[in-house]
Design a protein that fits this description.
Blueprint: H1 5-27, H2 29-36, H3 39-52, H4 70-76, H5 86-115, H6 121-137, H7 139-145, H8 151-166, H9 173-189, H10 193-208, H11 213-238, H12 244-261, H13 265-285, H14 288-298, H15 306-328, H16 334-338, H17 341-356, H18 363-380, H19 389-403, E1 408-411, H20 415-419, E2 427-429, H21 436-444, H22 447-453, E3 456-462, H23 463-472, E4 481-487, E5 497-502
Parallel strand pairs: 1-2, 1-3
Antiparallel strand pairs: 3-5, 4-5
Length: about 500
Amino acid sequence: MQNKRWLVWITLAGLCVRFGVWFYFRAHTMPLVTTRLPDDALYYFTIASNLAHGHGVSFDGNHPTNGMHPLWLLLITPIFTLSLTKWGLIHSVLVFQSVLDTAIIWLIGSTIYDVLPNAKESNRKTAAILGALIYALSTISILRSINGLETTITALLFVVWFRVYIRIKHESLKEWMMLGIATGFLLLARTDSFIVLLPLALYLLVTRGKSEWKGILQASILAIAIIAPWFIWNLKNFGTIVQSSAEAVPMLAMRKYEVLYGSGKYWHFFVEAIRNMLKPFWYSAFGLPLLTMGYAVIVRRKNVSPAERSIYLLIAGGVLLLFVHSFFRGFIRDWYIEELLPLFLIGFCISLCANAGVTEVRASGRYALATLVVFLQFVLFRQPQYTSQSQVLTLGLPTTEKLTALSNVASFNSGYYGYFATRPGSVVNMDGVVNSDVLTALKKGRIAEYLDRDSVAYILDFQGDFGGYINLFDHHLLDAFERDTSFGNPSEGNDALALYRRKAILGQKQIP
């Protein structure tokens, strides 16, 4: 700790910045909704609220769901037992997430410093400061990663996993046991994290499989034991271990691209995959990590230490994850990238220090680099990502709160509407992300029949979303509905909200 006093100050600075931003968003709801809080985060909050109040793992209290990652859900569920307003509960989750994100700052700096014991002390220290400082003040981590989703806990566990792995000594079963536990929890944080671990796991089997087979087997058994209850629960309730959230939106994307590109869709996927694979290098430090790590792997390959090689293989796994999502699922969210940024920063700073060799690098140069990266991130990445949600907040929510007092309302993007509904269970998720029954109906092209069974009286969503589902899934989706009204001003750059009501409902006036 004495050698890392500088890291304490950086971590405290990062905590102060995160609390400052939290207080700002607590007082300004519109920027919070349009900048930081995607609709998917409200799926978590609604499911956590239902679970906390005895309604099971369900978005609407009627249908069980597996459209989330279990570890984050379990961590935030106790918050929803508190007697707070709905916005108060959201802010509580975000302050908890801010604390977790602050822990990542410490782990980044400490990991970089610990992995470089043979480097010059000045180079070792400045490399660790560089990584910790960039993350502490990063606009991406402060505004985008603290988003109510599993992003932060996954990023934290990736770094923890790496730290556990590099500390394994020959035939140390206790340390292999710790790796198994870390692996299990990482998979609970995001099931697809196994793809990130895959290159390093294969390298481990090839190079140490014979000498460390007992430890590898023990770690594997522990990881499986931790993740098994989640898989068993999924098989029992849904007949598959695949989450509905993993199928729903990519299914729409694949059908849309089939129409747009036909047999050329995989060329489009390939181009998008390359672009997405480069994003973490760009987001972390504007492409510099690709240059420094590329130099280490190509030029210094014989002098790469085991720990350095391990972080590069994890980063290769992160790139593989983005390729798989882009090429085989045709769909990717930016938070898939953001959870990888700590690993990329660690790899960047380790390679920067290791590439310097015995040459002592001026500290001022690295501090200037950190300042430049932080400044450019602030300039380029502070724009709101979810501007269309301004209409959800100002127009959609008041309408939903009024309608759900007596009726059921369906929506494709139903996170906000479900969480703020007047009556629990009165909002039906229509895109299948958190409703496996709807997902089945989508596959069969029978969404309209499902809405009949769930007694849906109104459908509310962006007008542009209706066309895709009508043309690609169910041509009869709106046969039993008629346009009630539209909200918003498309000239402002956002699609208008459209409200449809069931034709059988008579005597109802337009919703103002």
